[in-house]
Every structure is written in C-alpha cells, then in structure tokens.
Q: What sequence folds into this?
C-alpha cells in the first residue's frame, strides 16, 4: 500500500491547474480527429455556399411628420400639437404592418404585375402548387406573405422610416418595397383628409338642397307678382326684411357650423373612447362647467348686440364709439375665460399619456367651439324672434309680398353661405398634405447581398476547428486513461521508461517485429528498451543482487509479454545471461512470439514430466534463453506459490544473471501478486490511451506490499511524435548512425 506521504502527493498533484503546454499537447494528441472534423465543417460550408440561393435587397426610405391640418385654419391649441414623435412613428409602423395596409399593397402589386406582364420575374409571390406552371398569388395570399417579408424600422433618433425587402428576385424586391411605400402614403393621405372629406360631402348635399330651395322661393315670388299683387315694398318694410334676413342668415350659418362641429366632436369622442374611456368621461364634465358656459353666453350676447348696433342708423363717429365699447367688454370677458381654459388644459394634459394627447386636444378645441356656437345660436334665435314680431306687424297689404321676399333673401344668403363653406372645405381637403415624404425609392439591385460565400466558408472552417477542439476536450474530460508519463507522475508513481509503439504489433496478423530488439536493434523502440534496462539497473541500491524481475500489467492486452521478451533481449545484448519464464499459466504468449510449441514447459517440470534441460530453449539472441508455460494447469495460483516454484527460481538464479518472469495481469488474478512477493523487482506495464488511472493505482496498491519489490511503471505504446517530438527527434538521430554518416554536425 502507498504510504501517507505518497497519497498526499497524489492529491496535491491532481489539484494542480493545467498549463498551456498541457492544452497544446492535448491538441497535438488529437490532431487527426481535429483535422477530420475541421475538413468536414469546411466541406459542409462549401456545399452550402455553392447551393445557397442568391438573395437581393432593396430599400425605400421616407420621412414621417405629424399631420399639420389645412392651410386655412390654425389649431386652437398649438402648444399641444407636437406630442411624442417616437410614439407617433411607432404607431405608424404598426399601421404599415397591419392587414389592411398589406391588402392595399397586394392590390398595387397585382395591378403592376398585370399591367407589365412580369410574372416570370417573381419568386415569393408565385403560387408554386404546380411547379411546372407557377401562377401569381391571390390578393389574400400576397397579404399573408407580406406579413413576414419586409423589415420596417425607424432610424434611431430620426423621423425616418426604412423598409427593406429581401427576395431571390431583384425585380420582385424593388416592386414590393415601392408598392409598400406608395400604398402607405395613399392610406396616410386618405386618413389625414378623412374628416375634411366628410365635411365637404355634407356641404355638397346642403349646397344642392339650398339651391333647389332658392329656385322654389324665386318662382313663388315671381308667380305672386304676375298675379297682380303688390310688386314693390316700401322703404320701411324693405329695411326690416333686410335686417331680419341678415340675422336669419347668421342663425342659419351658426346652426350649419354647429351641426358640423357636433359631428366632428362625436367622431373625436368615439376615437378617444377606444383609446382611454376615462379621459373621455372627464371631458364630458367640462362642457357643463357653469363658469365657462356663462362667460361664453355673455360673449355671444355682446357679439350679437354689436351686430345690432352696426345695423342701426347712427352716425359714423357714434357707431365707432359703440363698437369700441362692445369690443372692450368682449375683450374683458375673454381675458377671464382664457385663464380658466388654461387650468383645464393643464389638468387634462398633465396626466394624459402621449398617445391620447392629440385626440384630447382636438376634443377640447371642438368642445369650446361647440359651446360658443350654441351660445351664439341662443342669442340669434332671440333676435330673430324679436324681428319676426315686428315683421308680423306690417300692413296686411304688404305682408304677403314681404314674406315671399324674406324667404327668397334668407334662402339666397344661406345658399351663398353654404357655397362659400363648400368651396372652403374643398380647398381644405385638397390642400391638406400627407405626413409621408418619400426620400428614396427602391431600385432593382444588380448584385445579391446574400449569401456571403467567403464568410460562410470561413465560418464553416472556424466552426469545424472549434468543434474538433471541443470534441478533443470532451474526450479528454471523459477519458480516464493514462496518456503521458506526466499522468503517471501526477499520481505519485515512479515512471521507469516509456516505450513507443512497435510497427506491426498493433496488427494482429503481423507479429514479425514483436521481438524488436532482435529483429531491428537500431530502431527507436530498441533504444527505448535499452534505456529501460539502464534505469532498472540503477533503480535500487541492491540492484546487483536483483536477479528475479517480474513483469506484470494492470489489465490484459497491455503488452507485458512484449515488454518481457524485449527487456530480456536488451539485457542479453549487454552480455547478461538471461532466461524468460512464461508464468502466465492462463493465457501464455511467449511461445507465440518465439514461434515454438508451449510444451514441454514450466508446468511440465513442476509436475516431473520433463527435466530442466528439456524445457530451456535457445532464442535467436545469444545469452537469451526462454521457458514456455507448458501444459495449462487447473490451479495456477497454487503452483506459483508452491515450494517447487521457489526451488525452481533458485536453480535458475544459479544459472543466469537475470530471470525474467512474465505474469498475468495483477488486477485480474492473484498470480502476479504472489510472484511479486518472491521476485527481487516488480515492473508494472500500462498502455497509453488504454489503461485507466484508477486501474493503474489499484495495481500499484496490490504490488506495494511489505517486500517493497515494486520498482515502477513502464508506459507502453506511447506516441513520441504526438507528445514528445524532441525525444523522437533525438532517438531517431542516434538510432540511425548509418544513415547519418555522411552528414555534418
């Protein structure tokens, strides 16, 4: 058993960190798998790059601005028009992505393709159900495809939106990008003009209706005059009718504007209710604010009184003084109204999110306008009622003609007012700009933007190398086998030597060079065995008395027999009389390497069936003899631990300088453990990349008993080229003297 100091050393070495050299050696040991995986990654990348479809990109850029209204009106609340631009653009981008917008884009694409007949230039927009006869998709199919195709983004910090489209067809790429921008621009313009269009259509209907009423009134007046009635009014009646019709025209105008304002207000409220019902409910309470309503009624009353003063018969100087007085009173009331409105604005907008501020501002503006119109309507209704009393008091002979004339003049003024408002609405509609300004149209690209074949190949190679290195590290992490002499030393175990792989030994059908020191004495493995011989001779202070050498392994097929034969041959080449005894009585191999029969052998001598001179055989090397196992017994352990075995070894020690015992694996059976107690020196063979560390430590534990015959470990099948290139170079140089004779130092 290893002592406490040895176990402590093992634990400390295992906790040491790996160095850069360790990682480099790991890569060198796994160089071939890494190269194969790297080449596989490169091949996959080359195949992908060669077969990847060319993708073309086309972009269109436009600037977005908030709606500015028409050129004939300024907003009532301009300080609240410039709300959060980023939020506005984000909302517009969602509108661009909406299904209705995609349907509009699909309509434009269908019209363009149908007109130009360029179906063969398309790719994504083709229905390829029949590969031999692809056709253009339907409107709904195109809208579905467009949901994922374009990439729509706002440029950071700018009011600029860019639409990128990528398809395998350059024509199709530019077509989709341009149709998207144009369709959105048209929808945006239509949306901006929607309210004005509604007003225009309402006034158009009123225009036709009032024109018919005017024609009817003129016909009635003409018929009355043709029947012989009074054909002319006196001056007093004419003045009364003029004043009455003037105020009736104002009343009709106010009612017309009130109708339009109420309609706008209802639409604004419906929109705001969808966004934030709470704000809409709060605004409903504002219109019932008594103080504001009272001020608006007073202002409306003064405005009507001023109009009455203007219609009266007064001198110019007197009229100007009266008007100035009314203007001062109106101005004073407005100065009281404005602070109250500002307080209401602040209370509403301070807590309102940005996305509702625009609609809140519109509603508040329209609400104030509506309340003012209602107050004006109320005052005008009273004025008209007073004038009607005076009108009804006219002489009976003139009242019929006066009524017809009043009706004609009133309808005429109303018609002229409607005509004026209609023309104004028409100008407003046409002059209202959209909020989309196209900066760059999409052009048909000449070169594909994807794939970057060079980058794909480089990435494939890098990924292949990375995967290869990863596989190497994963294999190393899960691989618990001994690989290098450092792995053995890290466990606190002495390493005697490392033997390289012998050509032909790995191939079971070719065993010609297994006895390498005899067949190729100038080879690198032969030099390694000579180094092992030297280290064994100096491994113990009593090496001169160390004649019996036991060679065992931790597990089967680790090369202990090959090591035994070649180490014995190395001692024989040093003029030592050596005999190799095959003590592996379970699976003997010495006779196979020496190409003889295994009987008679060691067991035959023990059972008295053969003499010593009958079992000792000469090898092809001088000073090297060997004894085969003989007949396989049923009780190998009892034979190896018997007195006959001890007497047999004593006889051989008297005849030879070195007695080499080839024994079974120590972990598998107890044979080697028994022999290690009677051997002078015990050598443990482990195979690189085969023997597990735990198994090696278990074998060392079994061999480290009280006799202390265990000398160290021999690392077999070690690759000099992979881990110890310099050793390989030196061995090669000094093991080829004939080949290097003509070379200069």
A:
């Amino acid at each position: 058993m290893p002592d406490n100091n040895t176990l402590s050393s093992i634990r400390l070495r295992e906790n040491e960190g790996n160095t850069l050299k360790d990682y480099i050696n790991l890569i060198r040991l796994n160089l071939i798998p890494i190269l194969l995986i790297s080449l596989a990654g490169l091949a996959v990348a080359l195949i992908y790059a060669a077969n990847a479809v060319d993708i073309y990109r086309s972009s269109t850029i436009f600037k977005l601005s908030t709606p500015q209204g028409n050129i004939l009106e300024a907003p009532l609340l301009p300080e609240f028009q410039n709300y959060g631009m980023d939020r506005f653009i984000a909302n517009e981008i969602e509108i661009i992505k909406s299904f209705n917008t995609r349907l509009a884009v699909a309509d434009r694409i269908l019209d363009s393709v149908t007109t130009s007949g360029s179906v063969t230039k398309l790719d994504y927009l083709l229905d390829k159900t029949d590969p031999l006869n692809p056709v253009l998709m339907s409107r709904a199919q195109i809208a579905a495809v467009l949901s994922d195709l374009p990439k729509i983004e706002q440029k950071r910090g700018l009011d600029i939106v860019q639409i990128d489209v990528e398809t395998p067809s350059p024509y199709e790429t530019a077509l989709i990008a341009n149709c998207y921008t144009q369709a959105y621009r048209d929808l945006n313009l239509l949306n901006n003009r929607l309210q004005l269009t509604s007003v225009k259509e309402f006034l158009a209907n009123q225009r036709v209706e009032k024109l018919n009423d005017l024609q009817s009134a003129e016909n009635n007046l003409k018929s009355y005059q043709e029947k012989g009635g009074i054909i002319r009014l006196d001056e007093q009646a004419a003045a009364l009718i003029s004043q009455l019709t003037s105020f009736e025209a104002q009343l009709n105008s106010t009612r017309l504007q009130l109708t339009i304002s109420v309609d706008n207000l209802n639409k604004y409220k419906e929109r705001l209710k969808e966004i934030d019902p709470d704000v809409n409910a709060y605004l409903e309470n504002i219109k019932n604010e008594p103080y504001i309503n009272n001020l608006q009624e007073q202002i409306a009353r003064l405005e009507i009184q001023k109009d009455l003063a203007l219609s009266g018969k007064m001198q110019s100087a007197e009229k100007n003084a009266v008007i100035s007085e009314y203007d001062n009173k109106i101005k004073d009331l407005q100065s009281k109204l404005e602070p109250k409105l500002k307080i209401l604005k602040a209370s509403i907008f301070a807590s309102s999110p940005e996305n509702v501020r625009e609609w809140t501002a519109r509603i508040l503006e329209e609400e104030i306008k509506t309340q003012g119109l209602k107050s004006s309507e109320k005052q005008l209704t009273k004025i008209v009622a007073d004038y009607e009393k005076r009108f009804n008091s006219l002489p009976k002979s003139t009242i019929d003609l006066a009524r017809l004339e009043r009706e004609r003049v009133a309808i005429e003024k109303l018609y002229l007012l409607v005509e004026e408002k209609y023309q104004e609405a028409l100008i407003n509609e046409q002059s209202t700009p959209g909020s989309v300004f196209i900066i760059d149209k999409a052009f048909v690209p000449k070169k594909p933007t994807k794939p970057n074949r060079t980058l794909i190949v480089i990435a494939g190679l890098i990924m292949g190398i990375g995967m290869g290195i990863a596989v190497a590290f994963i294999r190393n992490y899960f691989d618990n086998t001994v690989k290098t002499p450092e792995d053995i030393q890290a466990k606190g175990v002495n390493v005697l030597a490392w033997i390289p792989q012998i050509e032909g030994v790995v191939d079971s059908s070719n065993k010609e060079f297994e006895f390498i020191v005899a067949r190729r004495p100038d080879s690198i493995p032969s030099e390694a065995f000579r180094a092992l011989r030297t280290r064994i001779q100096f491994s113990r202070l009593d090496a001169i008395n160390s004649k019996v050498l036991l060679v065992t392994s931790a597990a089967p097929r680790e090369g202990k027999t090959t090591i035994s034969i070649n180490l014995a041959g190395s001692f024989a080449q040093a003029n030592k009389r050596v005999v190799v005894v095959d003590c592996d009585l379970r699976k003997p191999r010495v006779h196979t390497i020496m190409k003889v029969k295994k009987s008679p052998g060691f067991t035959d001598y023990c059972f008295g069936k053969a003499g010593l001179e009958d079992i000792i055989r000469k090898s092809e090397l001088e000073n090297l003899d060997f004894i085969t196992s003989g007949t396989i017994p049923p009780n190998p352990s009892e034979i190896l631990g018997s007195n006959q075995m001890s007497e047999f070894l004593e006889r051989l020690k008297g005849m030879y300088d070195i007695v080499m015992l080839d024994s079974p694996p120590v972990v598998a059976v107890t044979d080697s453990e028994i022999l290690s107690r009677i051997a002078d020196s015990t050598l443990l063979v482990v195979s690189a990349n085969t023997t597990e560390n735990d198994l090696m430590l278990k074998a060392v534990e079994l061999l480290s008993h009280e006799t202390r015959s265990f000398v160290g470990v021999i690392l077999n099948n070690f690759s000099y080229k992979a881990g110890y290139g310099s050793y390989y170079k030196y061995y090669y140089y000094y093991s080829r003297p004939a080949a290097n004779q003509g070379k200069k130092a």
In short: Residues 1-15, 69-83, 737-745 have pLDDT under 50 and may be disordered. The radius of gyration is 56 Å. The CA atoms of residues 36 and 468 lie 8 Å apart.
